Amino acid sequence: MNILSDLRARTCPVCGAGPDRANLFIESRIDPVRLSAESFASRKTPEFMSYELVRCSKCATVYAANAPPVEALADAYRDASYDSYEEAQLAADVYATALQPHLKAEDRNGTALEIGCGNGAFLETLRSLGFREVVGVEPSRAAVDTALPNVRSLIRLGMFREEDFAPASISLICCFQTLEHVLEPKLLVNAAYQLLVPGGVLALVTHDYKAWINRMLGRRSPIIDIEHTQIFCKESLQYLLSHAGYDAIRISGINNRYPIRYWAKLLPIPRSAKGIACKALDITGVGDVIFGLDVGNILSVARKPN
Ligand SMILES: [Zn+2]
Q1: What pLDDT sits at residue 236?
Q2: What order of strands is seen across the sheet that includes strand 62-64?
Q3: How far lies 219's CA from each of 39, 46, 71, 99, 293, in Å?
Q4: Based on the number of CB atoms within 10 Å of its own CB, is 62 exposed (0-12), middle (13-18) or buried (19 or more)?
Q5: Number of Cβ within a 10 Å radius of residue 256
Q6: Cys-Cys link to 223, which of 6, 95, 207, 266 (CB 3.0-4.6 A)?
Q7: What pLDDT is recorded for position 202?
Q8: How confident is the model at residue 1 (pLDDT cuts 50, 70, 90)?
Q9: CA-CA distance, 61 to 27, in Å (whole number)?
């Protein structure tokens, strides 16, 4: 299915407000010729293509005014390429460090679920944190194919579906760098609420379109992307989580740590110049140096009330 052949008008995917509350955020820019299996891959080289994005004046969410149906997105993510094994491990370490202060000893007695687990790098971390049972859901076959044998059995290949899990059975649900990619983020957060045990934790990592770097880069920011059917800020995440019934909501910035080679990939410069820069980084070995950067990512942690 062509991802662009059947774009459908949407209301705000967080608060449901209609077009009368939507103001243009960024105009559509899509070159169908450049769409490929890499377009829906994790940590790809930015393509600077996006749907028309509007900003909701009720909840501050930025969202695609028209987006493909869920079946087309499922196909695109199933067939997406994957080549970010090292970056996935580094991201898992960052998320673990950021999440640990929010977890109580009793949280770890139960089951942890990660929605959009990629190659399962964070599932291993969850096991080392002491969770009794660990499950991941991931739609991309290529990502799951790179999972280590000891975590492959923990991953269910396909889209997340609430009905695949028992209600009130999970103590931690993680959804990292995935909520921008789903068609119905409100349904996902509501489903997580149903699946969590009373007192259970939902942890989200998302971009923040209001972060200084994203405001500075504008259309050249990697978050303005065809993979993102919505983009959040702290205000819209607070709205999303509080209206779904969560409490103890904590939203804070996190610094990602990646090799210089990866950061260079994100630079808003032409592809040819980027290719030369990346080659130079590889030849000199500088590309392997790892450092942390505030690129406007945020961790939101919330609990289902007891
Ligand atoms: Zn809204």
Answers
A1: 98
A2: 22-26, 53-56, 62-64, 230-231
A3: 17, 11, 28, 30, 20
A4: buried
A5: 20
A6: 207
A7: 98
A8: low
A9: 16
Distance 186 CA to ligand 1 centre (A): 11
Q: What is the pLDDT at residue 272?
A: 80
Residue with tokens 């103590």: 171
Which amino acid is present at 134? V
Strand order across the 247-259 sheet: 155-157, 133-138, 111-115, 170-176, 196-207, 290-303, 247-259
Write down the mean pLDDT value for the chain: 91
Alpha carbon of 17 to ligand 1 centroid (Å): 5
CA of 57 relative to ligand 1 center, distance in Å: 7
How far away, in angstroms, is 210 Cα from ligand 1 center?
16
Rounded to the nearest whole angstrom, what is the distance from the C-alpha of residue 158 to the centroid of ligand 1? 28
Buried b (16+ CB within 10 A) or exposed e, 143-177: bbebbeeebbebbbbebbeeeebeeeebbbbbbbb
**Ligand 1 midpoint to CA 226 (Å):** 20
- For the chain, the distance separating the N- and C-terminal CA atoms, rounded to the nearest angstrom, is 44
Q: Report pTM.
A: 0.91
Q: How far apart are CA 212 and CA 36, in angstroms?
A: 30
Number of other residues whose CB lies within 10 A of the CB of residue 272: 8
Lowest mean pLDDT among 61-65, 260-264, 267-271, 282-286: 260-264
CA 21 / ligand 1 centre spacing (Å)? 8
CA distance linking residue 63 with residue 157, whole number of Å: 27
Query: 195-218: per-residue pLDDT in tens?
Result: 999 999 999 999 999 999 899 989
